[in-house]
Write a structure and sequence with these properties.
The complex is a heterodimer of chains A (about 400) and B (about 150).
Chain A (H helix, E strand, L loop, with lengths): L6 E12 L6 H16 L8 E5 L8 H7 L6 E3 L8 H13 L5 E8 L37 H16 L8 H10 L13 H6 L2 E4 L1 E2 L8 E10 H4 L7 E7 L33 H6 L8 E3 L5 H10 L8 H4 L18 H5 L5 H12 L12 E5 L5 E6 L9
Parallel strand pairs in A: 2-3, 2-4, 9-10
Antiparallel strand pairs in A: 1-7, 1-8, 4-7, 5-6, 8-11, 10-11
Chain B lengths: L4 E3 L18 H8 L4 E5 L5 E2 L14 E5 L3 E10 L13 E8 L4 E5 L15 E8 L5 E7 L5
Parallel strand pairs in B: 1-8
Antiparallel strand pairs in B: 2-3, 2-4, 5-6, 5-8, 6-7, 8-9
The chains are: A alpha/beta (about 400), B mainly beta (about 150).
Chain lengths: ~400, ~150
């Protein structure tokens, strides 16, 4: 079978994202799940698959989620509790649906960050990963004082600035653009205007990255329901199809917060040549980067937005810092990026907020920040996982 | 080649900062205690690798030998901490962590022991040399300092 458009998102729901929510992960999960069911026009009893991102202690694990939320499923999964797996959850759901392992798969992230210590501190539940054989998941090396994901992104950024002779101040265009988007998103947690002066006056968190280069941790939940294209047409809203997908790349030359070839950890040093339209995600979808109406990406730190744009061929390696200037990635620009405000301003919710934004944009539900005639949207990260979404054009319900 | 060993004085007892000693990496950590840094050199592709792993990630070869590192390298990248995440490093603020390109090929992270001003520039490519810190619990840890002139 051709996977293009075989599976669609038919329901999406979220109570929003919060700097600090008093609600437990199960409670947050339920708030998103009931909204997603309502959005799809489906009954709880129709859900027969479940994939969760971020388990306990920050979130909820699949077994209790299924039993406590009254979900009787015949396919369940839960990846490593890292933000990077958001889109991979949806890809796994698409594969499971294609193989008939379930008819309607509920995917959600529901977690609480505010009750835990800072990333990189020993109070963080994941601190022990820093002591893994071979190093932490973001290059953490505590005996060297190297801790917190921001430092891994900083190491990569410093090298990138050097390699391509880039003025680090050009990074400001990323958080400034996303804040302007967040100001149009009632659900974003950071909605006060942000000026260039504010950006340059902000302190370093870990040099070279400043406060406004770092995402805002939040509590919250987002749920999606996926089903096959045929079943999708019986749901309430226009189905948002998965037209092309590709997975997270890993290996000696990949780093979670760095372009291949940049040399973080033991990566070889080379000039990265993006495949662009030859990437699987584009080939499967049958489209080119120039066809994409909006792009969303993992913006835990501003420089990784540059590398994602380069990875998918929107610009050449080393050129993204110039390419993003003058409103190019803002609403009304050539390629609006993270129109919800992204992790940097809407809140760091591991891609779920950004894919929810894609669903809203393609349905025409994005309100003041609606991208006109948005038909194709791409999620894509610096480590290669990507999904191209499109509105179902065959027999789709008319949009108001 | 013997590398300088210096005592690291902590503001509090260090805890949960070092990876476990395993059958694979024990010789690496033991060598540091003798003032030596060693890494694996692949018999197949001749590449020097780090961290310690029983197979060569570059050619798949499983035959290798220990190689003594000169401790010489250059700054490949760096970050500067201006706020503390770990109480053991609180008294060192601001401190710099380097990614060092070792002359044998592999890269290693290590703290820069030179005390610098908060806004002192650091040049990528600057020569550095390895120094071994002796920790109060008897473990030894690689760190770096700018290379002494004339060497
Ligand atoms: Zn080899």
């Amino acid at each position: 079978m051709n996977p293009r458009g075989a599976v669609a998102i038919v329901g999406a729901g979220s109570p929003g994202l919060f700097r600090a929510s008093p609600d437990t992960p199960i409670n947050l999960a339920e708030q998103a799940v009931s909204r997603a069911l309502d959005d799809a026009g489906l009954k709880r009893s129709q859900i027969d698959g479940l994939i969760i991102q971020i388990g306990s202690p920050r979130g909820t694990d699949y077994d209790l989620a299924a039993s406590m939320l009254g979900l009787n499923v015949r396919f369940a999964a839960q990846p490593w509790a890292h933000g990077r797996f958001g889109a991979t959850v949806l890809t796994h759901a698409a594969m499971a649906l294609s193989w008939g392992l379930a008819d309607y798969i509920l995917c959600f992230a529901a977690y609480n960050n505010s009750s835990f210590g800072r990333h990189g501190s020993k109070e963080r539940p994941s601190y022990g990963e820093s002591l893994r054989e071979g190093g932490g998941p973001h290059a953490e090396t505590p005996h060297a004082g190297l801790t917190a994901p921001v430092a891994g992104a900083g190491m990569a950024a410093q090298r990138y600035f050097h390699k391509y002779g880039i003025n680090p101040g050009k990074l400001a265009a990323v958080p400034l653009a996303f804040r302007r988007h967040a100001m149009l998103n009632p659900e974003a947690v950071m909605r006060k205007p942000l000026t260039r002066e504010d950006y340059f006056a902000s302190r370093y968190i870990v040099e070279p990255l400043r406060l406004f280069d770092c995402s805002v941790p939040v509590d919250g939940s987002v749920a999606f329901i996926l089903t096959t294209a045929e079943r999708a047409r019986d749901c309430k809203k226009p189905p948002i199809q998965l037209l092309g997908v590709q997975g997270i790349h890993a290996g000696p030359n990949e780093f979670i917060f760095g372009q291949p070839g940049l040399g973080v950890n033991q990566s070889d040093v080379f000039d990265y040549k993006p495949a662009g339209a030859d990437d699987l995600v584009f080939r499967m979808a049958g489209v080119k980067p120039a066809d994409i109406d909006l792009f969303t990406t993992y913006d835990a730190f501003s420089p990784i937005v540059l590398w994602a744009l380069e990875r998918y061929g929107y610009c050449k390696p080393g050129e993204a810092a110039d390419w993003i200037q003058n409103g190019r990635i803002e609403l009304g620009g050539e390629l609006p990026v993270n129109t919800n405000g992204g992790f940097l301003s809407a809140g760091h919710f591991n891609s779920w907020g950004e894919i929810l934004e894609i669903v809203r944009q393609l349905r025409g539900e994005a309100g003041e920040r609606q991208v006109r005639n948005a038909e194709l949207a791409q999620w894509g990260t610096v480590v290669g996982d990507s999904i191209i979404f499109g509105r179902d054009r065959t027999g789709a319900k008319e949009l108001s | 080649m013997t590398l300088p060993i210096i005592d690291r004085v902590f503001p509090i007892d260090p805890e949960d900062l070092l990876p476990a000693i395993t059958p694979d990496n024990q010789q690496f950590w033991d060598a540091l205690g003798r003032g030596e840094a060693i890494a694996q050199n692949c018999d197949g592709c001749k590449r020097t690798r780090y961290p310690i792993v029983p197979v060569c990630p570059y050619c798949g070869g499983t035959a290798w030998n220990w190689k003594t590192l000169s401790g010489k390298g250059t700054v490949f990248s760096w970050v500067r901490y201006v706020r503390s995440y770990l109480p053991e490093f609180e008294d060192l603020m601001p401190y710099v962590v380097l990614s060092v390109q070792l002359e044998e090929g592999a890269r290693m992270f290590g703290r820069l022991l030179d005390k610098l001003d908060r806004d002192a520039p650091i040049s990528i490519g600057a020569p550095v040399e390895m120094v071994i810190e002796r920790w109060p619990d008897g473990r030894h840890v690689p760190a770096f300092r700018f290379a002494t002139k004339g060497k």
